[in-house]
Design goal:
By secondary structure, the chain is of the alpha/beta class. It has helices at 20-26, 49-64, 80-98, 119-128, 139-151, 194-208, 224-227, 232-244, 264-273; strands at residues 34-36, 42-44, 108-112, 131-136, 159-163, 181-186, 251-258, 278-286, 289-297.
């Protein structure tokens, strides 16, 4: 058995197998979900939402000093290692201009669809000292994200939250005329309907349970706005690209996760159409799933000041 999750980014703090004794010392309730599987590996049942949530709580406390992290059962419970990878690949992208990873509060990131979990801003700030703005159309999600910040007052000056009142807009109503962001990031709604979301989750649950069909459990939770939108991720990211043109001088690098590889051709064709100066696809493995980051900029290379 491999002792390292080699598919994760080299700076990812979660490359090694989970030390469950250590994690249980951080969050004692986690012990009720930890067991040794048939391969002799200590693990949890990742199809149980409460188990995943407690694991996340322990990981965020131990590795990122985040206290009392919690989310409602109805919200997306993300896998922390994969979320961390996105942040580290953005750091690499920014390092291309400077020759080294830029750190500190002068680097400002925008997390589109921050959700109730606040995970990207937490990891970005605790890893690199960046300041972050998290936006969402769901006010309940933002209220929970604020509760996490209230439990961690030392983060309140580095992480801000803002409600997006119009679900048809992404940057409009958020980026003001004088604002400047080093990057934006987004984990977009993947499915195009509630039905396809349920089918996809049933497949995931079967995989987690070695092919045994069980009652569909949203093991990573999720509100509608987090998991599906009309037209799915292609429509969402296409809208983001089109809208990014209006803010071409205010965001150095726009980035977004793309789950379906088949969508890349249409998205890169659109980027050419809107005259993006540079764009790239960054492959990113998350366990058995391969995802990718699409990044684009309208700023000429000589003007990319960080």
């Amino acid at each position: 058995m491999s002792t390292e999750k080699s598919s994760l980014h080299t700076r990812n703090l979660h490359r090694n197998p989970y030390d469950f004794d250590l994690l249980i010392s951080c969050v004692p309730e986690l012990k009720h979900y930890v067991f040794v599987n048939v391969h002799g590996t200590t693990t949890i049942n990742f199809s149980l939402p409460e188990a995943v949530k407690l694991l996340n709580k322990a990981l965020l406390f131990h590795f990122y000093k985040v206290k009392n992290w919690d989310i409602p059962d109805s919200n997306l419970c993300p896998p922390i290692p994969g979320r961390a990878d996105y942040v580290h690949y953005i750091a690499d992208l920014l390092a291309e201009q400077k020759g080294e990873i830029p750190t500190g509060n002068s680097i400002k990131g925008l997390d589109v669809g921050v959700g109730a979990n606040l995970v990207y801003p937490l990891i970005a700030h605790q890893s690199y000292g960046w300041t972050m703005l998290g936006t969402d159309i769901n006010e309940d999600s933002l209220e929970n994200a604020q509760r996490i910040l209230d439990q961690n007052p030392d983060l309140s000056s580095a992480i801000q939250l803002q409600h997006q009142p119009n679900s048809n807009h992404i940057f409009k109503g958020i980026i003001a005329p004088g604002d400047r962001f080093t990057f934006s990031m987004c984990n977009p709604p993947f499915h195009d309907s509630k039905e396809s979301m349920i089918k996809g989750n049933l497949r995931k649950t079967k995989n987690l349970n070695k092919g045994k069909a069980q009652k569909t459990l949203l093991n990573f939770g999720g509100q509608q706005s987090e998991l599906w939108c009309e037209g799915g991720e292609l429509a969402f990211i296409s809208n983001m690209i089109t809208e990014s043109v209006q803010y071409s001088s205010q965001v150095l690098w726009f980035t977004c996760l793309v789950s379906k590889k088949d969508n890349l051709y249409k998205l890169t064709t659109l980027l050419k159409k809107v005259k993006a100066i540079d764009f790239k696809t960054i492959d990113m493995a998350q366990g058995q799933k391969v995802s990718r980051i699409l990044a684009w900029t309208f700023v000429p290379k000589k003007d990319r000041k960080i």
